[in-house]
């Protein structure tokens, strides 16, 4: 990997998400060598990916070059790499660009979509965890409407204009709201020769409430908002299959649709080579102690989505959200500095829950703070302010803010561009892979 | 195609570039049915593509949805389609989404890269005529530097950091200037562990001046600017081959490079089915008369890059630039309206040359106007103002302006993101195509 051996201890961080970046910033100014590996050369602000999918924001405004975040630190190294396996006995990781020795290893690999073993759904549904995936969804939504114009079959038209979102967490709810606003504000103007009133937005949820994990007040209000926008909410319904045309559920309910968006769950993106038997919980996360140390290892840590730290308050681990990753990244940074440089003992991590929020549409958001809960226009402004605040990069903030102001005033979303057609890409890859859908990687 | 038959005459326009859009705007408010076909669902502002390739602008800010440009006209139809052939005897075009009858057909298909028959260069070089192509180049430039970090071979490092641009028209010159600014301002910060001083930017030109077609004053000044920025200019040199590693020329000069950017020429993007024998000139454009009517046809017109209208002032046709396309689009619009609605005779087209300009870098541009020629900072401001003015969409203008101000103040270009790695895509396509490089279409 061409990284010089120095007298400083080497900390290798895998993953440049919220946790990895927060940790790297803490460590890079210290007397240690920090190596960050990621398979992208940019940090992705995942909470706004759904706005990329729905044409409200350009992808480049929610991504930020990792090299730039850390360019002022001379002991910091970034490498664009896919990690293949960890050899803990040799303190070495193996990657597609060669091996690397470490003194301390931090797994900040985040999470990936959890299909709960359903290969058919995995092969046919859309997901939204990375920028290319969000762009694929944007292309597909637009390609669907272009195709709907061309067919005389009402059934096919309906399938192309029917969107089924599985999972009513923040991602599912926010996406449903955005699609409903597109249906209302943009489709009638863009497709006057298509009866876009027949477009349907469905959100399917296995439990009996949406935004599970938020207050019942927030959940109820979000449901009202979605209904106002014309979204169909199906609770207590579990999607069981999707062959690319028909969605089946555990009830009598079926959907004919060309687009299933799977936002029903995530799982830890674990790394091979770390003994899974003892330390991986049901959500596929590495079990860590209070100092984020992976159980059974002395020099390997895990933070954020891929870490499962249990406590009385969080018997199944912390929620898999950005705030936990950021706080664990900062905390582990302090612990490592104290431990490595001053040989001080580590302090246990405690999560400070600053609240949760979700937005459904213009002037429609729900906010749960530890002391206050509120909904509506003020909540919507708070949501926007918080997201702008956490977005990395001044230019990104200005561009996102400009888009939001424009979209708000004009009821518009101008980034509705099919830059790389999704159907064509998928067809080419399927040909190439000789119809082995489980291996598809669209990046 | 599901386009209703009405009592209005139907004008079909192929291509949503500068000419097609200008024409459609003129016609759509009249008593005629206007159908615009394009293979993208957006209009591309091509003059700024080089800033996308070099991370200065996000692609979405120079693209604009065609449906949105014309959404207020009830007789306007857009279809996302690839035109396959024209059957002039039947007044019908055939496309990948079915056939369509026309009363009048306007070819506004623009131009594509001209490799002058060199298949090897076509298979191995990068081009920059569409948004996906510009993004591929952006990815490749960044992938090169990431790869250069990993190798111990000085030769390979040099090849990865060596950029050869063929053609010193505005595109080549502007790209060379932008790469030189990246070398100076960004590489040392992003790649401190790489000796980026060794990066080379070469521009190769077969003639004895750069910016051919502009004044000798502008050409000389642009050359000075490029030299100030450290660009190597090779005049009177013709590139003869490139196998992916070695660029050969008609002189002793060779380059070892991983990146050849071909900006040496364009040719008309003609449409099959229109008899080529009589009406295609050496630059592959349809010969048209003073009213933009294609020679030998009564109801088929051509405008912009694909049209060749000769006159005393322009014995080989007009320059293939946006201004000609816009003026011909507007003019043909007026002619068609007069002719179809009032049966008035058409007026001949005359090109009003408003001038030419090119920018090399910050505060460095050259402007030739009919009466004044100037260079430097003021020219640079004029260049920016004119480009903002012609960019379609208020939001796009604000976002582009924001980026320019930011880039100017910070000496930065933040969109240096590898969203879709180019090398991986190319490898996959080559596998799929079983090494038939001439068929590669990366979109």
UniProtKB/TrEMBL annotation, chains A, B:
Catalytic activity reported: a quinone + NADH + H(+) = a quinol + NAD(+)
Top-level EC class: oxidoreductase
Organism expressing this protein natively: Galbibacter orientalis DSM 19592
Start and end residues of each FAD/NAD(P)-binding domain: 10-329
Key word NADP present: no
Record-given protein name: NADH:ubiquinone reductase (non-electrogenic)
One Pfam family this sequence matches: Pyr_redox_2
Protein family membership: Belongs to the NADH dehydrogenase family.
Molecular function, one GO term: NADH dehydrogenase (quinone) (non-electrogenic) activity
Transmembrane annotation, as ranges: 377-394
Domain External alternative NADH-ubiquinone oxidoreductase-like C-terminal: 354-409
Domain of life of the organism encoding this protein: Bacteria
Keyword Transmembrane helix recorded: yes
InterPro entries reported for this sequence: FAD/NAD-bd_sf, FAD/NAD-binding_dom, NDH-2, NDH2-like_C
Enzyme Commission number: 1.6.5.9
Keywords in alphabetical order: FAD, Flavoprotein, Membrane, NAD, Oxidoreductase, Transit peptide, Transmembrane, Transmembrane helix
């Amino acid at each position: 990997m061409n990284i010089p051996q120095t007298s400083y201890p080497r900390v290798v961080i895998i993953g440049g998400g919220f946790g990895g970046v927060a940790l790297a910033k803490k460590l890079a100014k210290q007397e240690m060598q920090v190596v960050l590996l990621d398979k992208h050369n940019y940090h992705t602000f995942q909470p706004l990916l759904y706005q990329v999918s729905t044409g409200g924001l350009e992808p480049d405004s929610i991504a930020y070059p990792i090299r730039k975040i850390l360019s002022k630190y001379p002991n910091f190294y970034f490498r664009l790499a896919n990690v293949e396996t960890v050899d803990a006995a040799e303190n070495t990781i193996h990657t597609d660009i060669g091996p690397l020795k470490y003194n301390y290893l931090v797994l900040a690999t985040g999470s990936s979509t959890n299909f709960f073993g359903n290969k058919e759904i995995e092969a046919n549904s859309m997901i939204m965890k990375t920028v290319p995936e969000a762009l694929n969804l944007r292309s597909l939504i637009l390609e669907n409407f272009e195709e709907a114009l061309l067919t005389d079959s009402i059934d096919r038209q309906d399938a192309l204009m029917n969107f089924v979102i599985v999972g009513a967490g923040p991602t599912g709810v926010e996406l449903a709201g955005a699609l409903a606003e597109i249906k209302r504000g943009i489709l009638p103007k863009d497709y006057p020769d298509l009866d876009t009133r027949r477009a349907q937005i469905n959100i399917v949820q296995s439990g009996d409430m949406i935004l599970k994990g938020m207050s019942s007040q927030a959940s109820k209000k979000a449901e009202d908002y979605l209904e106002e926008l014309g979204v169909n909410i199906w609770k207590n319904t579990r999607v069981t299959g999707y062959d690319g045309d028909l969605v089946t559920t555990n009830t009598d309910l079926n959907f004919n649709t060309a687009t299933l968006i799977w936002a029903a769950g995530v799982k830890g993106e674990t790394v091979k080579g770390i003994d899974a038997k003892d330390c991986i919980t049901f959500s596929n996360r590495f079990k860590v102690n209070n100092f984020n140390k992976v159980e059974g290892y002395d020099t390997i840590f895990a933070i954020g989505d891929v870490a499962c730290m249990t406590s009385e308050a969080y018997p199944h681990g912390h929620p898999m959200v950005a705030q936990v990753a950021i706080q664990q990244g900062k905390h582990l940074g302090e612990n490592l500095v104290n431990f490595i440089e001053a040989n001080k003992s580590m302090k246990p991590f405690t999560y400070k829950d600053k609240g949760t929020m979700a937005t459904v549409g213009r002037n429609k958001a729900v906010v749960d703070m530890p002391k206050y809960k509120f909904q509506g226009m003020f909540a919507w402004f708070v949501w926007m302010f918080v997201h702008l605040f956490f977005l990395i990069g001044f230019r990104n903030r200005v561009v996102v803010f400009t888009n939001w102001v424009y979209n708000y005033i004009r009821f518009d979303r101008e980034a509705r561009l099919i830059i790389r057609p999704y159907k064509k890409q998928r067809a080419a890859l399927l040909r190439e892979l000789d119809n082995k859908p489980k291996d598809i990687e669209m990046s």
